[in-house]
Specification:
The chain is 55% helix and 7% strand. By secondary structure, it is of the alpha+beta class.
């Protein structure tokens, strides 16, 4: 049997969507590890045959394809990257207890904080103030993990920083688009300072989408949701 066709599948591909904060996690993990990858931008209204073939279960981005084998779900992909490319920047904490804590907080951020942030997008008037306060409360609980540290991962970016790092870039965009303040120096001083540190890390900065384009896309999305 010829092994030639399999050789064509060597390498790393990321199926993503330029404005997705979930996709950026995968790019950040790969860049921190120094792994070269090919990025394929998907039109989610008209998904490619490759995306549907590689992720028939949820049909969502991101999908990492490593030597022809697909892995879906951003947090799972980040852990996979850390296990496969052991050299370079460590992502998961070495200590099992710390690893469990990082996973727990990541799950909390995914389930609770993200759920509290999404309603801000469609809220107006008094309702907006209410949902903004709820989001702040959620972020305050997460922020306690930053006490006495530069990053959630300690002195360097770790798993939790990669999972919630998108807040640093996307939340100010949401604040601008929706005319609301969430992460302020008064309410969330540690998180606000962490935003600056995250965005100063070269490997992370290099993968960020254009801010003006992101603002425009989010404005259009908010108008669409409000008019619906």
């Amino acid at each position: 049997k010829s092994r030639a066709p399999a050789m064509a599948e060597k390498g790393v591909k990321v199926f993503g969507m330029w404005a997705s904060p979930m996709v950026i996690r995968v790019e950040w993990a790969l860049r921190l590890k120094g792994v070269e990858y090919e990025y394929i931008d998907e039109d989610l209204a008209n998904k490619s045959a490759d995306l549907l073939r590689y992720n028939p279960v949820t049909k969502k981005v991101p999908v990492l394809v490593h030597d022809g084998k697909p892995i879906a779900e951003s947090t799972i992909i980040v852990e996979y990257i850390d296990e496969v490319w052991k050299g370079g920047h460590p992502i998961m904490p070495a200590d099992p207890y710390e690893r469990a804590q990082a996973r727990f907080r990541a799950r909390y951020a995914e389930d609770k904080c993200n759920a509290a942030l999404y309603p801000i997008f469609t809220a107006t008037g008094e309702e907006q103030g209410k949902v903004a306060r709820e989001a702040q409360q959620c972020l305050k609980i997460l922020e306690t993990a930053l006490e006495g540290k530069k990053f959630f991962g300690g002195d360097a970016v770790g798993y939790l920083d990669i999972v919630v790092g998108w807040f640093a870039y996307w939340l100010p965009v949401v604040e601008e688009v929706c005319g609301v303040s969430i992460v302020t120096g008064e309410e969330l001083p540690l998180m606000k300072a962490w935003f600056g540190r995250v965005l100063a890390v070269d490997a992370l900065k290099a993968a960020l989408p254009d801010r003006d384009r992101l603002v425009a896309a989010n404005k259009a999305r908010r108008e669409q949701l409000l008019s619906a």
